[in-house]
Every structure is written in C-alpha cells, then in structure tokens.
Write a structure and sequence with these properties.
This protein is α/β, with parallel strands linked by helices and 568 residues long. Helices cover 38% and strands 15% of the residues. The radius of gyration is 25 Å and the shape is globular.
Length: 568
C-alpha cells in the first residue's frame, strides 16, 4: 500500500475523499505518512461526488476510498455519474481476504462485477507485486481516450503484503492524444467554408480537453457562431459577439434554438447529441449537415450518422482546423449570418427582471449573474433549478460551470462543491440547489464545516417536487410531490444552524442581493458553508409544462430568415 500511495502522489493527487473501515485500514496506514490530504465524508456517494468535483476543476484524476461491502455499492451512483460525464476518477474499495470471498464473508460482495457497467475498468488486486502497476494502469485508463472512472478492489490480505518498488524509477504512464487525419481536417474545413449559415457546437469534450483557446481561434478566423451544450458551458465566453446561445428542449435559450433551426451546417466537437439537447431528431437534423468530432470512435454515428466523422482529441483537432483555415486565407469579416445571430440574441431574450412576490426564479439568476464575477465556479445538479440555471446563468470561462449532466443524481452539488473548493481554496464557489436535492446528501455540510471548506449555497425552494409535478400534468394528477414545510417539516435555516453554519431565508426579490452579499462575506469570515434559501413561486414552469410564463412581448423581427440573401 505504500507503493500504491506513492503512485497516487506522483500522479498529482493531493486530496482524497473517503471513509475508513476495517477492510481498508492497511491503505489508510500508508496514506497517513504521505503528503495527500484525506477528507472524511459522511457517505461514500458523497465521497465520489467530491472526487468528481475535484477532477472536473483540476482535469486530474479524483480519488475516493471506502471499505468493503456497502461502501462499494454506495459508490455506484458516483461511478455512473463520472462515466456518463467523462470524468476521470478512481474508486478504491477494501475487500475480505481472498480465501473468504466464496464463503459469504462479512461485507464481502463482488464489487468488481457490480461496477463493470459503470466503469472503464474494474479490477481486483490479486497479488501484492502488482500493486504499483495496477494503480499506474488505473490512472492511465481513467485519463485516456474518453476519460472515465476506474474501480480498484483490494482484498485485506493483499493489502498487507509487500512488494519491490522504487518510486525513483517509476513515473506516470504516457496517455495517447489521438491526432486527426489531415484529409479529414481538410474535408471539415471545406464544409465549414462552403456553408452559408454554419454553427460550431462545443460539448463537454472541449472543456475536458482544455481546447477553449483553439475553439475561439477557429471561430474568430472563419466568423462562425458558437453554441455550447449544457456540459460545454464555459467552453466559449457568453459575452463574445459570436456566442450563439444553447439549443435544446430544456436547458436552452430561445434565440439559441432559433439560430440552430436557421443553420445549414453544425460542427459538433466533443458532444454526445444527448436527447435533452436534440429533442426530435427529425427536426434537429432537417435542413443541415453535421460534422462530428470525438475522441472516442464509437461515439460517431451512435445517435445519428453525420455527414463527416473526425476522430481526434478536441484540442489538436480544433488547432489543425484553425491552421488549415488560416492557410487558405485571411480572417473573415463578420457575415450576414453572424449579424443575424446577433439580431436573434437581441430580440429573443427571456425576461429576468421580475419584482413580483412570490419570487420568480429567473430573478434569482439575474442577481447571481450581476453579483458574482466571471471566475466564480457554479455547481448545480438536476431539476427545475438546473433547467433555469442552464437557461439564465452566464458562464465565461471553462471549468467554472459544473453540472452532473447525463446521470443527474440529486444531492450531487454540496459534495462536488467541496471537491472544487479543496482543489481551488481561493476561488469563489456557489452551489445552486433545490430544496429536495439538498436533503439527499445534506450531511456533507457537516464535512465542509468540520474541515472549514467555505462556499455559498443558494437554494431555489418551491416546497415541492416541481419537475415531477410538471411531468404529472399529462396524467391529470398531482400526487406525492408536496414537500410543504409546515409542522414536522424541515426548516433549512435551522438545519444549517445545527451544523454550526449560518443561513438566511429570502421572500422578497429586493432582498436577494443583500442576502448574497451577506452570505459571501460570512463564508469568507467563518470559513464555513452559508445558505441563502430563496422562496420562489410554486407554479413556475421550465420544461415539461408551459415555458416559464416569463417571456417578454417583442415586436416582430424586422428581418425574417427567408428574406435574407445569405450569399451576401
């Protein structure tokens, strides 16, 4: 286990999250003499989400540790979340001794077989001599290709063994960075250059690849507007003249959908074409060509067949496309199409300046956008508040907007924020959470308080399961969704105080700003998490019912798409 810990140190791990137990104590014995900081969480799922958050903002491999039996099964949701969102992570579990595995020993479960569907590699260490090399391979696999999680299971007798290992003669294994074929790059630039109304769609793969600079260089040279997916928020600054919003059926902008439907070609980089983004594929695909760039070859054609597939790491692929475009000619001037996207942006915003009581959710995000700076990291999960966040929240830098996109586990936000803050202690971290999601893993607030990990929690509280209630509407029902906090309910302010943290409830829109100022100052002063609970209207819709009822009335567009000569 000393060799395993030495490998983790050399791989750049400075913080791990976990819960010790009898079957994993040899690893902990080695860990206590290392430079790695250990954060003891209250639930193994919380530990995985914390490691996930750490990995998302560092780009390195997050690590979570647990004992045998239920520790490993509690990690499955976190492994699935990391697998779905392409996050490099290693979960380490203790295990009963090898000779007892077939005898239903205490807390002995075949966690390797359980974890295989939600990991890139699940392995049980069989021999002490393999320890350093299995850990090295785990880090390589987690980082390689489409990143993802690995599980390493450690029988207690193997942990107690010894091995020959010299850390001075070892180093991280090389990670392949797939380069695109030059002919494919040239073909992609041909299609981009020939299109009258092209868009670039930046997915989470652009953020993971740290390819934002290359994306911007290509877009600016060809004057191609750029959209982002939910996972790609931050890949392109949202105040850039070429920013074209977000398309989708939930987390989208009205003008982003309009621009997408007017486009004739889409260059998708590091995007999965998830169903919440595409909606009806017949509508999504009609009238436009697609170029799909992905590091994982089997992703291309999985949802639909593109006109051109390009296999490659996002950063060298975008760099090669930019170089090819520059070789062919000088930077273009803004086109009629780029101006059209700007016009859609000006004329099709959603309203967020409501003064009504109860508070309308868009007003909350207006205050967040205005109060916090571009370097703030926002963490959010799943539900109406995530949809509002995707629709209204502004993001300007990569790795500053974290969301559990595909798996969507409730409770992800608070432990993920702990991981972010451990990685970047000086960065402002804000958690946007729903009242129900907060209750899933709110015990992790105690961890943040114990280790003095400060961040601001902004709770959007509508007192019931809003997204599920919307889904129930077609069934003509309103069943089992009410969470009204009357007698016997949860008082979130008192719950935070029970953890030794401060909280404030807001019911007037004019009080949101002062509450954010107070919470931010209090988090800095106390070095503890602080909660702002915003009570919003119960009937506000975002996705499955009528859209928001929060849209401005606009004059008809002065120029319609069919009236534009795109060749000009």
């Amino acid at each position: 286990m000393e060799a395993a810990v030495a490998v983790m140190e050399s791989e750049g791990v400075d913080t791990v999250f976990g819960i010790p137990g009898a079957a994993i104590l040899p690893l902990y014995a080695a860990l206590q003499h290392s430079s790695i900081k250990h954060i003891t969480v209250r639930h193994e799922e919380g530990g995985t989400h914390a490691a996930d958050g750490w990995a998302r903002v560092t780009g390195n491999v997050g690590v979570c540790i647990g004992t045998s039996g239920p520790a490993g099964t509690n990690m499955i949701t976190g492994l699935y979340t990391a697998m779905a969102d392409s996050i490099p992570m290693i979960c380490i579990t203790g295990q009963a001794q090898k000779s007892k595995l077939h005898q239903e020993s205490f807390q002995a479960v075949d966690i390797v077989e359980i974890a295989k569907p939600v990991t890139k590699w699940a392995v049980q260490l069989k021999e002490p001599a393999q320890a350093a090399w299995v850990f090295r391979e785990a880090f390589r696999i987690a980082r390689s290709g489409r990143p993802g999680p690995v599980l390493i299971d450690l029988p207690i007798d193997v942990q107690r063994g010894t091995c020959l290992y010299d850390p001075e003669l070892d180093a991280p294994l090389p990670v392949d960075v797939p380069q695109p074929l030059p002919k494919a790059v040239a073909a992609a630039v041909d299609l981009l250059s020939a299109a009258e109304r092209p868009l670039i769609l930046a997915g989470g793969g652009v953020v993971i690849a740290d390819a934002s600079t290359e994306l911007r260089e290509l877009a600016e040279h060809l004057q191609v507007p750029v959209q982002v997916t939910l996972m790609g928020k931050g890949a392109f600054p949202e105040d850039h003249p070429l920013f074209a919003g977000m398309a989708g059926i939930q987390t989208q902008t009205r003008w982003g959908n309009a621009a997408f439907l007017e486009s004739d070609l889409v260059l998708a980089v590091g995007a999965r074409f998830g169903d919440r983004h595409t909606g009806d594929l017949d509508v999504y695909r009609k009238g436009r060509q697609f170029i799909h760039v992905d590091i994982e070859p089997t992703q291309i054609g999985r949802v639909f067949e593109p006109d051109l597939g390009v296999v490659g790491h996002a950063r060298p692929t975008l760099a090669a496309m930019a170089a090819e475009a520059q070789r062919r000619g000088k930077a273009r001037r803004p086109s009629a199409w780029a101006n059209r996207v700007g016009e859609l942006r000006r004329t099709l915003p959603r309203r967020d300046d409501f003064d009504e009581v109860p508070i309308k959710p868009p007003r909350v995000f207006r205050e967040l956008n205005e109060f916090y700076g571009p370097d703030t990291t926002f963490v959010t999960a799943i539900g109406l508040y995530q949809i509002w966040s995707g629709q209204f929240q502004k993001t300007y830098l990569p790795r500053r907007y974290l969301v559990c996109g595909q798996a969507g586990p409730l409770g992800w936000e608070v432990p993920a924020a702990m991981g972010v803050k451990c990685a970047h202690p000086d960065r402002e971290v804000v958690v946007v959470v729903g009242d129900y999601s907060f209750q899933f893993l709110m015990e992790e607030v105690a961890v943040a308080a114990q280790y003095q990990i400060p961040f601001v929690i902004v709770m959007i509280n509508n007192e019931y399961l809003g997204l599920i209630r919307q889904a129930e509407i077609p069934y003509d029902m309103n069943f089992a969704v009410d969470l009204h906090y009357g007698e016997g309910g949860i008082d979130h302010v008192k719950a935070m105080e029970a953890f030794g943290c401060q909280a404030r409830r807001v019911e007037e829109p004019g009080d949101i700003r002062s509450a954010l100022e107070w919470a931010t100052a209090e988090a800095h002063r106390s070095r503890l998490p602080v909660l702002v609970e915003v009570m919003v209207e119960r009937e506000a819709n975002a996705a499955m019912g009528p859209s928001l009822d929060a849209i401005k009335e606009f004059e008809p567009l002065p120029v319609l798409a069919e009236d534009i000569d795109w060749s000009d």
